[in-house]
Write a structure and sequence with these properties.
globular
């Protein structure tokens, strides 16, 4: 697959604006970094963004999150690895990432109130929105993830 354009050169101002959101989420929101990894990975999986799944799974590993936890995000409903707080974030992430089909229902929103303040819910929503922007840029312009090593045939 060939990249369609270099989005960083096509509109550096737009990328700086998205980076502003990213920097807020990572450095100013106060959100638990492991929740940020969780929502970034789940949204990227849903959106089919190989670039972002690759990058964020590596970041999650470097942050000390287990292989099992990372590997089971895509099937979180079937796994006891995730606690109720994480499940609330995953449900909200899926609802917002698929908003055209879900309409962001109360059943996805209300569990957040048990674990997060209104500010934290807003910041989680900004984090989910931001990764969805990155996913759409990477998928839309066919941004390719790096290949760490080529698997040799047996």
């Amino acid at each position: 697959m060939q990249a369609r354009l270099d989005f960083t050169k096509a509109s550096p101002e737009a990328i700086q604006a998205v980076l502003g959101l990213e920097n807020y989420v990572a450095k100013q929101s106060g959100l638990d970094p492991h929740l940020i990894h969780l929502l970034k990975l789940r949204a990227s999986q849903i959106n089919g963004c190989a670039y972002c799944v690759d990058m964020h799974s590596k970041e999650a590993r470097r942050s000390g999150l287990s292989e099992q936890w990372i590997n089971l995000i895509s099937v979180w409903r079937e796994s006891p690895v995730f606690d109720d707080r994480e499940r609330a974030v995953l449900e909200w992430t899926e609802a917002l990432t698929n908003v055209a089909g879900t309409g962001a229902p109360d059943t996805a929103f209300e569990p957040l109130r048990d674990y997060f303040s209104e500010k934290e819910i807003m910041d989680l929503t900004i984090a989910i929105s931001t990764i969805n922007v990155w996913n759409r840029i990477a998928v839309g312009f066919r941004n390719q993830h790096p290949i760490d090593r080529v698997r040799k045939a047996s």
